[in-house]
Amino acid sequence: MPVHPIEYRYGSPEMREIFEVENRYRLMLQVEAALARAEAEVGLIPQEAAEAIERTVRECKVDLERIVEFERQVKHETMAVVLALSEAVGPLGEYVHFGVTSNDILDT
Q1: Which CATH number fits domain 5-100: 1.10.8.60, 3.40.50.720, 1.10.1200.10, 1.10.275.10?
Q2: pTM (2 decimals)?
């Protein structure tokens, strides 16, 4: 059952695609990659961590279903993305989402 006008009456197929859950996750992952790149440039995180985060996002190594699983557990969309990305990055995943809030990611 639709709960938002974009989902049924006022949304074009293109508009619905923008706000589709999977697309939101992909965009959030891209923001996390850009954040890591910027943080490495100013020395907040190691360059190798930024490269690992960017590579993981670029190569689509984050399983979107894993994000859904985490979201069910933590009931927090942004943290679910962070957890799935951190897991996919591996040991350098501790630098994902470094020093920012969930709203920073959502507002970007």
Answers
A1: 1.10.275.10
A2: 0.87
